[in-house]
Design goal:
It is a single chain. This protein is 36% helix and 21% strand. The termini are far apart. Keywords: Bacterial flagellum, Cell membrane, Cell projection, Chemotaxis, Cilium, Flagellar rotation, Flagellum, Membrane. This is Flagellar motor switch protein FliN.
Length: 171
């Protein structure tokens, strides 16, 4: 066998065997091999850490997770009547937008530009038909217009159930 870098020199199998046995006998070369293998070094370090007992006066290990107890997170099923009332009180002052809708229609831009003062726009709602009452844009009831002391109002005649709300959205 020849060394590709030195074609003039013949290398025998005995030379390879001698080199291998020399490497096995020399402990300094084994240390270099261990330093080059980071996994072996990490495994050795872990084994050494596991063998040493933890000191009892050391601070507790914060890397392990602790179970959450009831004093940190209260159970959802244990909500009392007073807690429910308090939760409702928190939302009582939130403003909502109430809208009463007489009817709707669709116009083209040409028709919109032709509107002038005194123009009449035909709506799809019929006279005497209940008007839609919307809260924040969602239909919640229907009612009829009333006039009290020269001001308009609406009398609720029907509360819309959730199934009826879905049906009315499709029109």
């Amino acid at each position: 066998m020849t060394d590709p870098n030195k074609p003039d020199q013949n290398v025998s199998d005995d030379d390879w065997a001698d080199a291998m046995s020399e490497q096995a006998e020399n402990p300094a070369t084994n240390d270099v091999a261990d330093e080059e293998d980071p996994w072996a070094a990490a495994m050795a370090e872990q084994e050494a850490a596991e063998e040493q007992p933890a000191p009892s006066d050391a601070a507790p290990d914060t890397s392990t997770a602790k179970a959450a107890s009831d004093d940190i997170f209260r159970p959802l099923s244990a909500i009392g009547e007073s807690a429910q009332a308090r939760d409702l009180e928190m939302i009582m002052d939130i403003p909502v937008k109430l809208t009463v809708e007489l009817g709707r229609t669709k116009l083209t831009i040409k028709q919109l530009l032709e509107l002038a003062q005194g123009s009449v726009i035909e709506l799809d709602g019929l006279a005497g038909e209940p008007m839609d009452i919307l809260i924040n844009g969602y239909l919640i009831a229907q009612g009829e217009v009333v006039v009290i002391e020269d001001k308009y109002g609406i009398r609720i005649t029907e509360i819309i159930t959730p199934s009826e709300r879905i049906h009315k959205l499709n029109r």
